[in-house]
Design brief:
With about 120 residues, this protein is mostly helical. It has a domain of about 80 residues. Helix content is about 75%, strand content about 0%. It has four helices and no strands. Helix 2 runs antiparallel to helix 3. The protein is elongated. The chain starts with 11 loop residues before the first helix and ends with a helix.
């Protein structure tokens, strides 16, 4: 039962989360931001990437996918909550990155649950 989705470092959904997080975290390098937008994107992007790496290393970690969904939602609402919705580049990065993170986390959830049950982890 060593399918690609149950082995560490092989799940495409988690790799997508890592890439999304890195792009969001580095996005202040090529767009105009203020201090709040920059740190919000860097911190949330880094958290998305780190959680994606954790999910890659431990494929049966179901709560990691739940954390991704929460981080994606936080990223999506951050332009309004943190007050940088007037910065279009930063806002669109947060909105698109947030939606993609939620979608990747939700898509990986059933796979993580199946891996969790297969591995017999509780």
């Amino acid at each position: 039962m060593n399918e690609p989705t149950t082995r560490p470092w092989t799940r495409p959904h988690d790799w997508a989360e890592v890439v999304i997080g890195v792009v969001v975290a580095l996005s202040p390098l090529w767009m105009t931001t203020d201090n709040t937008a920059m740190w919000t994107l860097v911190v949330l992007g880094a958290l998305v990437a780190l959680d994606g790496l954790a999910s890659l290393a431990m494929p049966g970690m179901v709560y990691g996918e739940g954390i991704q969904i929460v981080l994606g939602a936080l990223l999506f609402i951050s332009p309004w909550v943190m007050g940088y919705s007037d910065l279009m580049g930063a806002s669109w990065t947060a909105w698109i990155g947030g939606v993609l993170t939620v979608v990747a986390g939700a898509a990986a959830m059933p796979i993580a649950q199946a891996t969790h049950k297969t591995a017999g982890q509780h």
